[in-house]
Amino acid sequence: MERVIGTTRITLVRGDITQQTVDVIVNAANSSLLGGGGVDGAIHRGGGPAILEECMAIRAAQGGCPPGQAVITTAGQLPARRVIHTVGPVWNGGGHGEAALLRSAYGRSLELAAEHGLRVVAFPSISTGAYRFPIGKAATTAFEAIIAAVGRHPEAFDEVRMVLFSAGDLAAYRDALTTAKVA
Length: 183
Ligand code: AR6
What we know:
This protein is of the alpha/beta class. The chain is built from five helices and seven strands; from the N terminus they run E-E-E-H-H-E-E-H-E-H-E-H. The radius of gyration is 15 Å and the shape is globular. The chain binds ligand AR6.
C-alpha cells in the first residue's frame, strides 16, 4: 500500500524498524535519551554502544529531549545511515495535548531529516506501545503530520515508510493512509 505526493512515496510495511536499509530510522525514545524497551531497546541493541555515546553527549549539551522534539545520532552497526530519536507523548486520555505532541514528533523528525539530506525515512508507530496512544488516532495523526511535512519540503524526501510490527497495527495504518486528505 502506498500513496504518492509529488515525488514522495508514503509507504507501509510490516516489519522490524532495525532491519530497514534506509537513510534514517526514527526511534520512539524517551526524554532521557538513555534507552528503554520496545523500539528503543531494539535500536540500541542492534546498533551497539556508539548510539548511546552520542545520546549521552546530546544530554550533556542540552539536557535530554522533550516530548514532541527530536535529535539525531549515528546508527552504529544498523543498516540505516542515521537514527533520529524522537519522544512521543504518553497517552493520558487525549485532553492533554497528546495529538499535537505526536504531530510535532513526526514533524520535527522530518525537519531534521530534511536538514541532513536524508531522503528515505522509516518510522515506527510512535507512542502506541508503552505510551498507550490509541492506534487508530495515532495513525491518523501520523499521516496528518507526514503529509504536512512533505508539503513544506516537496523536494526533500523520496520515501517516508511506516514500519508496523503487527498485522493489526498495519491494518490501522492502512485505513488511515487510505482516507488521509492530501491538499
Ligand atoms: N520495529 C518496529 N516496531 C516495533 C519494534 C520494532 N523492532 N518493537 C516494538 N515495536 P514502543 P512508545 C512497536 O513501546 O509507545 C521505550 O521504553 C510496538 O509494537 O517502542 O513510543 C522508550 O524508551 C508499538 O506498536 O514506543 C520509551 O520509554 C510501537 O512499536 C517508551 O518505550 C511503539 O512502541 C516509548 O513508548
